[in-house]
C-alpha cells in the first residue's frame, strides 16, 4: 500500500465514525424538539412497554450524561440519560423503547445477545492487548506473537459484528412495541425510524472500521510471512 493510499485509508477510518456520530447527534437534536401524540416521557414509555411484556422486575433509572442510555442485564435495569428520562420527545421515546428492546431480548434469551455477553471478557481483553502483540510481533519478527494478536483482535471484531443483529433487533422490537402500546401512531413511525436508524449507524461504522483493520493486519501478516 503506497503512502497516498495509506493516508486515504487512515482518513476513512477516522471520517466514517465521525460521520456516523454527526448523523446521530443531528438526528437526535432534530427529533428532541418533536413531541409524540402520547406526550409520554422516556421513563413512562419504558415502564409501559416493560409492564406490557410482564417485565415488572426491570427497573428504570436515570443516569448522567448525554446519550448514555443503556440496558444493564446484570442489574436488570434500563438506564436513561436525563434528557431522555424526563423528555417527551420522539427521540426520547425511541431511545427508551430501544433500550427496553434489549430487556425483552434478555428475558427471551435472544441468542445473539447471549453470544455477545459470552464474548465480552475475551473481546475486552483482546481489544486492549491485541495491538501491542501485533505491532511487537511485526517489529521483532515474531510472527507467532503477531498471529496471536490477530486472533485476539479477530475476537474483538466478532464482538462488533455480533452487536449489529442485537442492535437492529432491539430497534425492530422498539418500533413494534411503540405502535402496539399506543406510544406513537402509525403516521409517526417514519420519524421514529429515523432516530433508530441514525443510532444504528454508529454500530455499523464501528464494525466496518474493525473489519478493515483486521483485513489490513491479516494482509500484513501474510505479506511478511511471504517475504521469509
Question: Gist?
Answer:
This protein has seven helices and three strands, in the order ααβββααααα. It has helices spanning 3-31, 42-52, 82-86, 90-107, 111-139, 143-180, 189-227, and strands at 59-63, 70-72, 77-81. It has a three-stranded mixed beta sheet with strand order 1-3-2.
Which assembly state applies to the chains in this document? single chain
Percentage of β-strand residues: 5-15%
Q: What's the average pLDDT?
A: 93
Number of strands: 3
The helix/strand class is mainly alpha
Main β-sheet description: 3 strands, mixed
How many helical elements?
7
The total tally of domains equals 1
Read across the widest sheet, the strand sequence of neighbours is 1-3-2
Helix percent band: over 70%
End-to-end Cα distance, whole Å, is: 19 Å
Judging from the principal axes of the Cα atoms, what is the shape? elongated
**Gyration radius, rounded:** 21 Å
